[in-house]
Each structure stands twice: as structure tokens, then as C-alpha cells.
Fold this sequence. Notes:
The complex is a heterodimer.
Chain A (H helix, E strand, L loop, with lengths): L21 H26 L13 H8 L8 E3 L5 H6 L4 H9 L33 H14 L6 E6 L6 H12 L4 E7 L2 E2 L2 E2 H4 L15 E6 L3 H16 L5 E6 L18 H8 L3 H11 L5 H23 L18
Parallel strand pairs in A: 1-2, 2-3, 3-7, 6-7
Antiparallel strand pairs in A: 4-5
Helix pairs in contact in A: 1-2, 1-10, 1-11, 2-8, 4-11, 5-6
Chain B lengths: L5 H15 L3 E5 L14 H4 L4 E3 L4 H14 L2 E5 L10 H7 L3 H4 L9 E6 L14 H4 L6 E3 L4 H13 L4 E6 L23 E4 L4 E5 L2 H15 L4 E5 L2 E3 L3 H9 L4 E8 L5 H11 L9 E5 L9 H7 L3 H13 L1
Parallel strand pairs in B: 1-2, 1-3, 3-4, 4-6, 5-6, 8-9, 8-11, 11-12
Antiparallel strand pairs in B: 5-10, 7-9
The structure holds thiamine diphosphate and magnesium ion (MG).
Thiamine diphosphate binds next to strand 2 and strand 4 of chain A.
Amino acid sequence: MTSVRTRRERSRRPIDEYLLSEHQLEEMYYYILLARRLNERMLALNRQGRAAFVIAGAGQEAAQVGAAMALQKGVDFVAPYYRDLGVNLVLGMTAREAMLNLLGKRDDPNSHGRQMPAHWGSVARRVVTQSSVVTTQFPHAVGIALAAKLCKDPIVVMASCGEGSTSRGDFHESLNFAAIHHLPVIFFVENNGYAISERTEKEMPLEHVADRARGYGMQSAVVDGMDGIAVYQTVRPAVDQARRGGGPFLIEAKCYRLWPHSSDDDDSRYRPKKELEEWSRKDPVKLFRERVESDGIFPREDLDEIERRVEEEVREAAQWALMQPDPEPEDALTFVYREA
Amino acid sequence: MPGATVIEAVRVTLEEVMGQDDRVFIIGEDVEAGGVFRATEGLAAKYPGRVIDSPLAESSIIGISVGAAHYGMKPVAEIQFADFIHAGFDQLCSEASRWCYRTRGEAHLPMVVRTPWGGGVHGGQHHSQSIEAYYTHLPGLKVIAPSFPADYRSLLKAAIADPNPVLFLEHKRTYRMVRQDLATEPGESRIGRARVTRRGDDLTIYAYGLMLHESLAAAETLSRDGIECTVVDLLTLLPLDLETILEAARAPGKVLVVHEDTLTGGFGGEIAALVAEHAFEYLDAPVRRLAAPDVPAMPYHHNLESFFMPDREKIARAARELAAY
Ligand SMILES: Cc1ncc(C[n+]2csc(CCOP(=O)(O)OP(=O)(O)O)c2C)c(N)n1
Ligand SMILES: [Mg+2]
């Protein structure tokens, strides 16, 4: 799914410095909205007792969609993290597949019910299978980039994580290696202000994760993660540069986690209400709509039409997924090893 | 002296496989210069760009190999000493061993991690360790621990050809201790097969690595005293060759498991359990384990080290007791 059909045929003329056509803007809005509505429906299913666990990306959708749209689908690799539903949607995951994943269904393409929800992976879409152990995917991204370099394949790899995860050794070992070997890796950090209950001050003695790049002689940038267009316009040049052999890049998108850490978390224990209220005004879904509407890029009816389509898509996907088969118990014994 | 040592077998195998398949590359500390044990000597010059010096960061050596294997390359990572692999445990345990399983076979990792293990070299706590007990607890990974040069060659080849992650353990004390003519000795080329190295009716000894050689020496001595041992070279520790293990236990009916790792939670417990579980009716004595004592690690000084390590005398003593049971 690349775009939502609306009444008017859209022009593909770039309207911004880094090649965002009206068509792409529409696409961006669609994915941002789809990610949010899917997460809302997932949480509802959790509250109804139909889904054991939800971990969502509310507040980070614009960052995810903006970054993923800067990649070449089916060519570039991503090693995402659990909140990156938006990234996966851009790369081709359907609403139905997202719901299969939530429910751990037999046909979930990510892990067929073998992993918790939001542990992504697709060979065809070049999404690297991901575990719960944060930042272990960083060396994988670097290894893919190293392999591609050995094969002289002009691909880029994007690895993403939260700011709290940048304290782990795998993060640092990966930046170090990628910088030494000048590998085409975009390290994309979605700084949402919290690692479960721990605020950034407890995670690192720096204001910006991006400053960690200096220790590895790596370029970096900080971008407003609530603004999908700004994220795209920051990530895209870094991707292009990496593809040309310009080496790795660390990008920090300043976001905010609008929801509790997960469906099992009670954030009232540690989060000031006022802070949440302030950040809610910068909700990326709202912000994006306001921007394209006030800029006069899209008439209100078009945006309403996208909303309706997304709502319908999500509703249908949930209903459909609930009826899909569960894994057979004995399936637990299969695929321990790959047969030679 | 004729024939190749273990380290020569490893080196020539890497050289040969790299010549046959340009997806194979080597990554590790000091590998461009040949590595501290010279397993990769001359390979950087012969295969430019395919022998890659890594920074001193074990988790990333393994994690980067995971990524490269996912892309379709065949990385052969070297961890300089097995004692330092634990920083990469997470990458082997949480990632590599589960890759195929968690994608339900959609993805897989043709990668090898080679590492020198074992004691008897005055390496103290952190250059002597046996690590197999930790890593054989990871279904999805394969763990190989040969003893003879020809098996090093055939099984290293098989490990690199295997579509799964393989931990290839090289006993460093044996690197230059044994020789074999690689032209006439084909070696075992099937991962997951053990070999009965010697047949005898009185008892069966299971071992791998240096302890296999010590067990064979003990069996020689015992034979002069009329005690005949079957000696099983386990070769692959995960997955185990249950059939050969049980078959070897049945006729003698007495079993001694030897390893140089400490006793509790050591790999020998697994062999003992399998024999007790599946060959109980054939047993004429309790299953016996000979291992290092339960102290945190192998100590340095010769007196302490040799007290810690099982050897041919200790094996012979344990075997005599068992034979007399
Ligand atoms: C290695 C590891 N330690 C602890 C956890 C438990 N855990 C899951 S998410 C999380 C916080 C991560 O924070 P951050 O990196 O900022 O990402 P965010 O959840 O905020 O998006 C923790 C501690 C884990 N999954 N992995
Ligand atoms: Mg965070």
C-alpha cells in the first residue's frame, strides 16, 4: 500500500527542498494516522482481554514514518525496535499483518506467534528480526552494512532504538565499528524522554544523544521528531550521503512517549500530568494535519476522507485477524535448526 | 615430524574454504596479522579485504557476524580466547541461536565462531576456561569440540558449510600437541556424530578436546593391566549423537565421563543423565564423572593448575575403581 486514493489525482511535484511531493505528504499522513489508529485499536483489544500485551509508538509516529520514507523500500535494510510500527507500515506491513502480530496468530509474518507483539521481522521487506533485548540489533545492522560493502551493494541500513537503549555496549560498539569502516548505517534514535520510568537525566549525562556521535568521529543531527517532514528532510540527505560512501550518521529525533511504556505500565507513578498535557499539544498526528490543512495543501474533505479510510481499514483488520487460526501447539518444536 | 598439527589443520582449512567460496570472510582481533595463535597467518595477504581486524569488542564481533550472515555472507569470527566470549553471550544466546526459530525458518545464519579454549597452558583464570556448558544450553546453536587434526579440518569445513550458527571450540593445549596426515585421514565430516575411538569391554570413557587424548593415554596404560576401555570422542557437543553414546555404553555397562570443566553443571552431567535415562538396564555400576573441582576457575601456578585439571593418571585411577566395582 503506497497511497490512499482521494478524489483528486495528486501532482507529484516536489513542494519542499528535499523532494516531498503532495503525493508523499498524503502518504506520510496516511501512515502516521494508520500507526496511531492501529495502536489505539490494539489497546482496546488489550482492555477487552483479547490481546495480552501492547507496546505502542504513540508520539513517535511522525519520526518513524519520516525516517522510513527516506529509505529505498526493498533495497535498504532496517533493524527497528518495538515501537516502530510506523516504520514497518511504510515498508509494506499491512494493517491485517499488524493485527496478526498483536494476536500472535499462526500467519503473523514476523514470527508466527513465537515472539511477543511488536518484535518485527520480514526477509522480503528487509526488516531484520528483532528480539526484546534492546540494542542487540545495532551490531546486526552494522554486519549487514559490512556485508553489503564487501559485496559492493549500494544499500543503506537504518538501526533504531530509544534514547535509554543508547547506554548499552552494543550501541557503542556498533557506532565505533561503523565509523572505523565508514559503513552506510543510519543510527536513528527516537528520544521520547523516558526509559520506562527513568527520565533522560538518569540515563545519560548529556542533553542530546546525538552528542555521543562525536566520540566516534561520526556526523550527527538533532531533529524535531514531532515533525515528520523535518525528520524526512534530515534523514534523507544522510541516507543519500551514506549510499554514496559518506559513512554512518547518528540522528536523534526528539519525540515524546504519549502513552505509558506498555499496556502493563502505570505512568501516573512517575510522570507529571502537566508535562503530558503540554506534550499532547504537540501530538504529531494533530500537528501534521494542522500543518497540511493550514498550508492549504489539502482541502479538509481530503483529510477527512483519509481518516475514514484508515478507520475502516483498522476496524476490518482487527475483525479479520481475530478469526485467523492460532499456531498448532506442536509447531513449537519446529525450526530449531535450518536443514542443510 | 610428519603430518599437520591442529593449528595447521585450522589454517589450511580456512585458506581452502576461502578459496572456494568468496562469501567466507574472517573477523576478529589481530586476525590480519595472523592471530595470536597464527590460525589466520597469511590469509589477509592471500584474500585482501576478507580478513578483517575488529576493534576489541566481543559482542560486536559476534553481532556483526550475525548481521553479515543474515545478509548471506559466511562470516568466520575469531574470539581470541574463549574466556572473553562471554561479553558476546547475549549475541549468541538471545540472537544467533534463536534467529531461525523466531522467524520460523524464514531467516537463518550461516556463521561460525571459532575460539581457543581449555587449560594446561598456565593461562590462569582467564586463558584456560572451558565454556561448553554455557553454550550447549542453547538449542539453535551447534557446538563442536574436536580432538584430532583431521577432524578439525573436516568439521571446520562442515561448520562453515552449515546454514546454522556454529561455535567451534579449539583446545589450545592441543594446537601443537598432536599431528595427523591430512591427506590420508579424512576425519568426521558430519556434525552431530561421535566416534568410538577405541573398543574395550570393561568400561566406556566419554571425552572431548585435551581430555580425549588423556583418556586414550589412560586406556593404553589400563590395557597393559588387562582393563580394556571403549573411548568415545564426542566431537559434536550440540546436537549430541545419542545413538553412538548409548551404543558405546551398553556392552561394557560401566561409564566414566571426563571433562576439564568444573563438575557441577558441567557438560558431563548431560552425558551421565542420557546414559542413566536410556541405558539403565545395561549398567553394572553407577555412572561416574571425573571433572575439575568446584572452584571458580583454573588457577595459575603449576601445582594448582595440575591439581585442578584431570589428566591420564586421574582418569586411570577413576577407571580402575570403576572396573573393580
Ligand atoms: C537489555 C534490556 N534490558 C532491559 C529491558 C527492559 N526494558 C524494555 S524497554 C526498556 C526501556 C527502554 O527505553 P528506551 O530505550 O528509551 O526506549 P523507549 O521504550 O522509551 O522507546 C527497558 C528497561 C530490555 N528489554 N532489554
Ligand atoms: Mg525512551
